[in-house]
Amino acid sequence: MSKKENPKLVMAAIVGAAAGALAGVLFAPESGKKSRKKLKKKANRLKDDFTEGVENVASKGIDSVNELKDELMESAQNLINDKA
Questions:
Q1: Helices 32-83 and 7-26 meet at what angle, rounded to 10?
Q2: Domain extents for the chain?
Q3: Neighbours of 82 (CB within 10 A)
Q4: What is the pTM of this model?
Q5: Cβ neighbours, 10 Å, residue 47
Q6: What is the rounded CA–CA span in Å between residue 29 and residue 33?
């Protein structure tokens, strides 16, 4: 995923996957017990995917902040050196 990709895109993909999984389980011709078991398994998988997505977005945000901080420090140092 590139820096410019929107975190909303990640969230939309996760929500779409959840909706598709739910529809698949609800319309499957299986017993209620099997359907609930499948639904629980898929829900846990989606929860893990969601958590991973949030962690990735947070990490990218931290990386961006650190890059901005480095650029600001470099600019400040250049201004100090130019004045000296």
A1: 180
A2: 7-83
A3: 7
A4: 0.47
A5: 12
A6: 12
